[in-house]
Amino acid sequence: MATLNSLKLALRQKAEVTTGNGKKSPLSEAQYSAGFDILARGSSATYRDFIIPHLFHVLAPLFNSRLRISVLEIGPGPKSILGELPLSQRRKISRYTALEPNGLYATRLEEWLQCSTQVGSEGLEELSNSPLPCLENQPGVHRSLFVLDSLQPGVEGGKKYDVILFCHSMYGMKPKRKFIENALEMLADEKRPGGMVVIFHRDSAALRHLDGMVCYQTALFPACSVRVANEDTVLDCFAPFVAGFNFSPSQGREVKLEWWRNVCRTLGRLDENGGHYLLFNAPQRMVTFTRQSATMLLELTAQLMLPLPAEAEIRVKNREARLNRQAAHIIRPTEVEHVQQCVRWALKYNLSLTVLGGGHSGHCLMPNVVSLDMSAFAQVRILVTGGAEAEVDSPLIIAGAGCKTGDIVSKALASGLEVPLGSRPSVGAGLWLQGGIGHLVRLHGLACDSIVGVVMVSVASGKLLYVGNVPSQHRPADAVRPDSEKEEIDLLWAIKGAGTNFGIVISVVFRAYKAQSYWVRNWVVPLPNDFEATRRLCGISEIATQLPQSRTADMYLFWKDGKLRLGVTMFESSTATPFETPTPIPTALLAFLGLEHSGRCVDGVGLFETDMYMTGMMHDGHGGGKTSSFKRCLFLKHVGADVVEILVKAMHARPSPLCYFHLLQGGKAVDDAVAREAGAFGCRNWDFACVITGVWPRDDQGDNEAAQAAAKWVYDVVSDLLPLSCGVYGADLGPDSRDAALAAMAFGPTTGNRLRLARLKRNWDPCSVLVYACPLLKVPKEPKLILLVTGESGAGKDYCAAIWASVFVSNGLVTRAVSISDALKREYAAAMAGVDLNRLLQDRAYKEQHRLALTAFFQAQVQGRPRLPEEQFLSLVYDAAADDVDVLFITGMRDVAPVATFYHLVPDSRLLEVCVKASQETRRGRRRNAADDDKDYKDKGSFKVSADMDYCPDLIFDNDKDNDDDGMAVRRFAETSLLPFVHSDLECLADMVRPVPDFPRPGILFRHVLDIAQHPGGLALCTSLLQKHFPSDWAQVSVLVCCEAGGFVFASALGIAVSIPLALIRKVAGASKGKIPPATISVVKGPSHISGCSSSLKEHPDVERIEMDMDVVPKGVLSVVVIDDVLATGETLCAILRLLVGEAGISAENVTVMVVAEFPIHRGRELLRRLGFGKVSVQSLLVFGGA
Q: Which Pfam families does the entry link to (predicted)?
């Protein structure tokens, strides 16, 4: 399928041949409009699948942080693409200007803008169906071009804009950098960061060379196509539009148009539905720039002072990256500090980076994005047990991120060692970190399975980290471990299978194995027909799965000399050197293979030369010329007749004779249980990895169409095989939109694996610095409210949860009640002979008989799997998120203080614990069990409600009465105490909290909670909600305690409403005098999350104290309520509580904390409990995820 660009060149060449240098007629406005309308109609999928979603995504941060947005659109056509945005974004557009040189389109655009907008006496009257309903003035549509001038025609008084949008119209603007720079000058003042120039363009090559301009975001849509009716009248309008000119009637216009029609029909591909349409490939690209795009690269290069790598030194093997993805700049760091500087620079400007290692990845370079060439980090070091510098139990190999696989294998072999690192000597770290499939997988597992440690630069902070087992002599001096053991375990897990997503790796530590020798045998078998192909592939694959771990059989399906052929390579390993007599081939296998084509003994380095593709056995060395390739890989459990049918059919449809399939055998060590748990590579249960490879002769100038045909063939085969596969290899995947569906199957069959990666990506790459790596799932929208229903056995937890859930359902909310113990019961029933799972799940008396054994089983499981409670909790949340559940009730929790323990895992949800209480007599009657069971339960670790609990549940429900009132008391509790947490007033209050990106430093999305007070009615609404959500009686409260500055604002309004006096706490910096006259009491306060991020604290690291009047809170008061604006790390609240409990002598049980906004990811509640304040009741109105 030809591209539109190829069609344009062919039409122009045909015109030159037929008319010579004769005069060509420029397109009239009517001719241009007719051609553009055909193009737009034929590109509807491009708008739906690429332009509209990407425009929404890229504008979202800006629109979320502003109340009013001004837009200048260049060449919008008959209507603006902005009209396709959701209403919430369109309502933010307060000023709109368009430059549309086509008079017909300008008129239609004015009609579109004003057909549903009326002007009233006080400005524009908003109508629900208006495309831009909140414009403050009439939209300005000017019939003029965008020119290289500081004062654009039609743009009044040099006005500035928040967004400048080119959706169709950078054609004819040369040089494009100058036009982009001109647009950047028209962005709003730098004091309001976030303004951007957004460009969509079909000819991605036209935006390739922008002389070092760095884009804010870029995206590619290579699969875009244009669909044009195969009719003479349509083609007579479309061809002149593409060519850019027409013929005059005096030049024999009709005859020449017929020639153009023939060109269109020759180059276009007929659609599969009757040939009524012609298809042309039209790759689309989006690129965005900010005010600093033209200058910020100069800032980075001035800091680094590194020479630009010579073009000959940059080895990019991937053809797409090499030809079509011109990086803004390639930096070759020589020290770790250089990498850190690049990351800090990217965080400062909210930019992305790519990493260039072996150069095989299609996304190692991206257009107008800075790339880090890691080739300077190419050292390989070997540590053996018992060596002079060894502190290891087994041999280790430390490889720099710039090493090639062949270098590592060669140096390891010189020390008598080997490590499984794939099957190509030129690949780099991207392969090891994302799996690493090669000839040794059955013997040693994947490359990522051998990773035991890494040194990396965090893209969340720029810190240098060492993770896992990194020998001390190979840790850089300033490298530190992650903040907690759990973070380190999670990060190492993610690196082993998805490592290109979580940081810039400096070096990798591999576990090494004793080197072995290998006997390699080859067969090439002709396949005269499809039946024979099916018989041999199915038979060989079945026998191969029975081979011992020391033997591997790979298969190749390829075309040679006009015949379909099957190639088989068998590898056999031995610790003997040299290799002794190879094991005889099984008779059943020989029946399919026949005589051996060749056989030889090789070492680990020689294995690289045994691949049939590399040796020339398949295509005689690529037919004597250089080639390029495009591949994707799926995992297959069985190679059956259905799989073979697809493969053979694809070989007949191949676009080039050089295309082939490689079926690489897996099993054995790949599916090792320890490796499965230790790393993120979740696709384990496969017998063959099917590598689908499109190959074409290399032509750096004119092979675009061959490359596109090969890529399309690969994706077509993938689409056919995907339903029969058990996973996708993620190492090949990138930001190509066609990879999105594949990425969903790249990390194993369980949703939990992929969602765990998504959460870690959000934590370790919050600014999307590595956005062009293998795409991971986005964290799904969690339930709005998660209620953990706890209580002792027999208290009625499941009964209450079911009724409470029904109350939420009756209020129109999607609600689910589940038991966290059900998964445990299933595992217990599977492990214990004679246990009836159905009765265990449904029969209460049967469950009670097994309760003690279940508890013991759970404790044993936790000892072996410490993260089991977390996994079980998240599994329920993920399942609910997948079904768009609003409210989730979870019963069966065994954890003490579950909110403090789990809240950081669900930072976008409100998490509450409701403890159901009942007397011992009531519970015993419900259990129908012996009276002394309680002691057993306590000893065995069951949940126990007692006065000596070290924390305070959020809510307590007394369920001591018999349920003879049809559960009315249970319902009333839900209506009065639970439903308020999903009231629409809370959503209104949340909308008043303005998000401010990258404040006070990059990566922080600051929530301006005090902005509530600056909204009309905001403080009154917040005060009302604080009153309603207080869990006790305001009449019992003696004083409201508040700390400056946020606490003062909200406590003052609340104090007036409830007629309660305030106790003011002031902050005192360093050794300065206090702000309150003596006598006072004071304590030291640690830095809060935001103050700890600010540069002023680093410049002035004086200890901060808080103080208050000594007698403002009388001892012996019944109740004290602390009011504050934010709970994040908990440092401020801990200081306040130390002041009240430790200095003022107030009992912790008499203190309630109420905050306006909580950020659970910082584990503030966990800190409160750890420091002895777990019994303090904490309530928050709003919950926000992120930092």
A: FAD_binding_4 (PF01565), P-mevalo_kinase (PF04275), Pribosyltran (PF00156)
- Average pLDDT score over residue span 689-697: 94
Q: Give the pairing type, strands 370-373 and 994-997.
A: unpaired
Rounded Cα distance between 39 and 27, Å, is: 15
Beta bridge partners of 95: 70
Distance CA 94, CA 86 (A): 15
- Tens of pLDDT along 308-352? 776 656 778 777 777 666 788 899 999 999 999 999 999 999 899
Q: Is the dihedral of CA 1003, 359, 313, 379 positive or negative?
A: positive
Residue 909's CB: how many other CB atoms inside 10 A?
Answer: 22
3-state class of 877 per DSSP?
helix
Return d(Cα 1125, Cα 1133) in angstroms, integer.
11
The tokens for 563 are 């015949």
- Tell me the C-alpha distance between 116 and 129, whole Å: 6
- Our CA dihedral for 1008, 1014, 1016, 1021, rounded to 10 degrees, sits at 60
Cα separation, 137 vs 967, in Å, equals 58
Name the residue among 225, 240, 224, 237 with its Cα closest to residue 270.
225
Structure tokens given for 35: 């051609």
pLDDT confidence of residue 128: 47
Higher pLDDT, 769 or 928: 769
The position carrying tokens 């003062």 is 1048
Q: Tell me what the pLDDT averaged over the chain comes to.
A: 86
pLDDT, position 256 = 87
> What b-and-e string marks burial along 47-81, b requiring 16 or more CB atoms within 10 Å of the CB?
beebbeebbeebbebbbbbbeebbbbbbbbbbbbb
Which contacts of 996-1002 are long-range, i.e. CB under 8 A and separated by 24 or more positions?
996/65, 997/61, 997/65, 997/194, 997/350, 998/193, 998/350, 1000/1090, 1000/1093, 1000/1094, 1000/1095, 1001/347, 1001/1093, 1001/1094, 1001/1095, 1002/347, 1002/348, 1002/349, 1002/350, 1002/767
Instruction: Give the integer Cα–Cα distance in Å for 849 and 844.
Output: 9
Size of the chain, expressed as the number of residues it contains? 1187
Which range of 232-236, 366-370, 576-580 scores highest in mean pLDDT? It is 232-236
340 membership: H or E segment, kind and range: helix 336-349
3-class state of residue 339 by DSSP: helix
Question: 3-state secondary structure string, 1045-1095?
Answer: CHHHHHHHHHHHHHCCCEEEEEEEECCCCCCCCCCEEEEEECCCHHHHHCH
Radius of gyration of the chain (CA): 34
**Per-residue confidence at 203, pLDDT binned at 50, 70, 90?**
low
Structure-token match 């702000």, residue found? 1075
Res 924 pLDDT > 90 = no
Which of 355-364, 703-712, 830-839, 931-940 comes out lowest in average pLDDT? 931-940
Per-residue model confidence as pLDDT tens digits over 505-560: 999 999 999 999 999 999 999 999 999 999 999 999 999 999 999 999 999 999 98
Per-residue pLDDT for 1029 more than 70?
yes
Which DSSP helix (H) or strand (E) runs through 826? Answer: helix 821-831
Distance separating alpha carbons of residues 669 and 380, to the nearest angstrom: 26
Task: For residues 141-153, give the mean pLDDT.
Answer: 81
On whether the CB atoms of residues 296 and 344 are closer than 8 A, the answer is no
Angle at the Cα of 242 from the Cα atoms of 241 and 244, rounded to 5 degrees: 65
Residue 613 identity:
Y
Give yes or no for a contact between 1081 and 1108, defined as CB atoms under 8 angstroms apart: yes
β-strands 1039-1043, 1062-1069 pairing = parallel
In angstroms, the CA 99 to CA 771 distance is 33
Contact 628/525 with Cβ under 8 angstroms? no
pLDDT of residue 782: 79
* 530 vs 536: CA distance, rounded Å: 10
Torsion-angle region of 623 (φ positive above 0: left; ψ -120 to 50: alpha; else: beta)? left
pLDDT of residue 965 exceeding 70, the answer is: no
Global pTM reads 0.79
